[in-house]
Design a protein that fits this description.
With 359 residues, the chain is α+β, with helices and mostly antiparallel strands. Helices cover 21% and strands 20% of the residues. The chain contains eight helices and 15 strands. The chain has helices spanning 13-16, 34-42, 99-109, 120-128, 195-205, 233-254, 269-273, 339-343, and strands spanning 20-23, 46-47, 56-59, 65-69, 78-84, 90-94, 133-136, 142-145, 151-156, 167-175, 181-189, 211-213, 225-228, 313-315, 318-320. The strands form three sheets. Strands 2-3-4-5-6-11-10-9-8-7 form a ten-stranded antiparallel β-sheet, with helices on one face. It has a three-stranded antiparallel β-sheet with strand order 12-1-13, with no helix packed on it. Strands 14-15 form a two-stranded antiparallel sheet. Strand 5 and strand 6 form a beta hairpin. The longest helix has 22 residues, at 233-254.
Length: 359
């Protein structure tokens, strides 16, 4: 029995839920967050999460861009928060924002920025190229609306009036029948957000293809159409593994000096839905596994296997014992040992714990 099978967790849903092709995609609800987090891990992002707290903290290579994913109790809170500590911009997404649409933004972060970023008219063209309509507010600011009028996206001028670097906002809202609106989700891109990242989000927002969801738990099931499909968990997982494989290959090309292991992602959805286990080598993650053999998590590993000291050597000054200068590098931000290694490992009584591990 795998670790995830021992608990009642939504991490098993891709395997245990019958999938339906759901349209329109922007009303399908959040989906599996590993569609984003595992791709970032495959691209070399490192985890700084506290295993005892319900959040995910990821940082890009070099720690420039950082992601905080924390569940919030209402639709007006930001679950996904990207911050660029070098450029000063940020992007926030609500919990009901479909992960496939957010992935248009996050996937662009894993690729080199284009030499010529898209302009505002080009982003507007992306929005209206699939039947979205244009509208203007009292200040003459142009927005695009979905055909059903439930979603709008448009720019707001930057604080310094620079039209090339606006603040963008996308919002899905339902009418209340009394002239008001109830927000379903919101995406907010601050002043200075690179336009190619906004364009990636916009492209996935208006993409015509469906996303795959179960028939229960949708935030507004009465507004979406769901069709039975032959695409089920095993095929979705296979596509996800191929996506991770391509991202790892691209990461190695972009950063040839980094090791391959640094660009790997935690298993998550892949082993759970893999009909042939161990089809791809998957390293141990920093949380519970979906494999058949439970492995230790980062929170339970406080030291490396003890290594016997080298034998004494003789010198003209007498017998000396070399000092073991190896450094224990295991900790919650690094890859933990495999189950086979930890099963046979012993810890010297009284040996100090890993000083880098967080409590």
């Amino acid at each position: 029995m795998s670790t995830y099978e021992m608990f009642f967790t939504d991490a098993n849903k891709p395997l245990n839920t019958v999938q339906y092709a759901t349209t329109p995609r922007y009303l399908a609800g959040g989906g599996d967050p590993r569609r984003i987090t595992e791709v970032l891990r495959a691209a070399g992002w490192t985890s700084h999460s506290d295993p005892a707290y319900p959040h995910v903290l990821l940082a890009s290579p070099g720690m420039a861009v950082r992601l905080t994913l924390e569940p919030a109790p209402d639709a007006y809170s930001a679950w996904w928060r990207f911050h660029d500590h070098a450029g000063g911009w940020y992007a926030h997404f609500g919990g009901h924002t479909p992960v496939e649409i957010i992935a248009g933004f996050s996937d662009a972060l894993t690729r080199p920025a284009p030499q010529k970023p898209p302009s505002l008219p080009e982003i507007r063209d992306v929005l209206v190229s699939t039947g979205w309509s244009r509208s203007y507010d009292r200040k003459g600011i142009e927005s695009a609306h979905s055909p059903d009028r439930y979603v709008r996206m448009g720019p707001h001028p930057g604080l310094d009036g620079q039209e090339d670097w606006p603040t963008w906002c996308a919002e899905a809202a339902l009418t209340t029948g009394l002239g008001g609106h109830e927000r379903l989700w919101q995406a907010w891109f601050s002043h200075g957000t690179p336009t190619h990242l906004v364009a990636g989000f916009a492209a996935q927002l208006v993409a015509p293809g469906p996303v795959y969801r179960g028939s229960y738990g949708l935030p507004c099931s009465w507004l979406v159409a769901q069709e039975p499909t032959a695409v089920q968990g095993e095929q979705l997982a296979a596509e996800h593994r191929q996506r991770l494989k391509a991202v790892r290959a691209s990461a190695r090309t972009q950063r040839p000096h980094r090791t391959h292991a640094a660009g790997r992602a935690s298993p998550g959805i892949c082993p759970a839905l893999n009909p042939t286990p161990h089809a791809l080598p998957v390293p141990a993650p920093e949380g519970p596994l979906l494999s058949s053999t439970p492995q230790p998590t980062s929170s339970s590993w406080t030291g490396s296997p003890s290594t016997p000291a080298p034998p004494p050597t003789s010198s003209r000054h007498g017998t000396t014992t070399p000092t073991n200068t190896s450094t224990n590098k295991a900790g919650p931000w690094t890859r933990p040992p495999t189950a086979a290694a930890s099963a046979g490992a012993t810890r010297t009584p009284g040996a100090p714990s890993n000083p880098s591990a967080r409590t």
